[in-house]
Amino acid sequence: MKAAPHRRPARRAAHTPAGRARLALGGAAVLTVLAATACSTASSSGDDRADASSSGSGKGGGRTIQVVAAENFWGSIASQLGGSHVKVTSIIDNPAADPHDYEPTARDARTVAAARYTIVNGVGYDTWADKLLAATPSSGRTDLKVGDLVGVKPGGNPHRWYAPADVHTVVERISADYKKLDPADAAEFDRLRTTFEQRTLGPYDRLTAEIRTTYGGTPVGASESIVSPLADGLGLKMLTPETFLDAISEGTDPTAHDKALIDRQIRDRRIKVYVYNSQNATPDVKRQVDEAEAAGIPVATVTETLTPAGASFQDWQVRQLEGIRQALAKAVGR
Fold first, then answer.
1. 334: three-class secondary structure by DSSP
2. In a 3-state reduction of DSSP, which class is residue 260?
3. Backbone phi, then psi, for 124, in 5-degree steps?
């Protein structure tokens, strides 16, 4: 299996003096964008206003809710829960973009400034979005920070869209917030939520439960911490050291001790399946994938954001869960 190129050189560079200087300049650039937005919002072109702040009537007569999601995995869910009553813009909507290092544009800032509802992942994952919100305060806007909602404290694992229970918690909150913002269409939001949870997410929930029931306790290895919430939700036993998972996620160099330990786990077949993020395949991860395949350990992949571009949350997740289930079946023979 050919690993995808590593896509986080900027985060790795952040740990060098030059990298810190580059990021400091990047932060200044963000502030400049925000200042420009504050000055230019009132004089934006007609096209920009149509893109960012159109708020026509929804089907039930309520105003269309302008929603901005920092990332497309939450944006996909928000769109399906709102139907024709919302217009959702996801700032990160390209599989090649890294949500950790994204540098917002003036257009992004105008979009956020015009939103009535925003969804930010939080837990340090998308601090650029926090800056956009802080620079465009609005008493008429509702802001959802997922990490706060599900109780993950600073320094915790931010990849909550890979935690099945947290996904459902977010679904409930978005629907409840829509009803507060547009009470006239509350019954329609209830219908959309019920459909999404009981039918749309049905294959996702069934696969999650099936893997947990059939393969719970199976030892697995992974390339980074994005896999940890999913492993927990599936009842799998993560053997890869947390320090290694965090290092790859944060773009820092893992320790020689951790790499040697993982090499032994693969060589001795202590792990039954290896799961890696194909959007962030470092040289260390590529080597582990090669070693796992050489040892006859099935390899499964996940990605950090929706792939392909335009995919729905549920189709993306089900495709990945199917790959993990197939790898587990091959590994344990059932």
1. coil
2. helix
3. 80, 5
- Contact of 106 with 40, CB cutoff 8 Å: yes
**Cα separation, 197 vs 77, whole angstroms:** 10
At 125, phi and psi to the nearest 5? -75, -40
Q: Where are the domains of the chain?
A: 9-200, 214-332
C-alpha–C-alpha distance, residues 324 and 22, integer Å: 38
Helix, strand or coil, per DSSP, at residue 178: helix
Over residues 124-178, the pLDDT tens digits come to 999 999 999 999 999 999 999 999 999 999 999 999 999 999 999 999 999 999 9
Q: What tens digit of pLDDT does each residue of 217-235 get?
A: 999 999 999 999 999 999 9
Q: Fold identical between 9-200 and 214-332?
A: yes
Question: What DSSP designation does 251 have?
Answer: T
Between the CA of residue 221 and those of 228, 230, 318, what are the distances in Å?
10, 12, 20
- Single out the residue of 97, 110, 3, 136 nearest to residue 46, CA to CA: 110
| pLDDT computed for residue 16 by the predictor | 34
Q: What is the dihedral of CA 217, 205, 223, 329, to 10 degrees?
A: 60
What class has domain 9-200?
alpha beta
Read off the pLDDT of residues 63-82 as tens digits, 9 standing for 90 and up. 899 999 999 999 999 999 99
Structure tokens at 90: 């996801």
3-state secondary structure of 278: coil
Amino acid residing at 248: I
Rounded Cα gap, residues 281 and 279, in angstroms = 6
Burial profile 305-317: b = 16 or more Cβ within 10 angstroms, e = fewer: bbbeeebbbbebb
> CATH homologous superfamily for 214-332?
Nitrogenase molybdenum iron protein domain (3.40.50.1980)
Q: 3-state class of 279 per DSSP?
A: coil
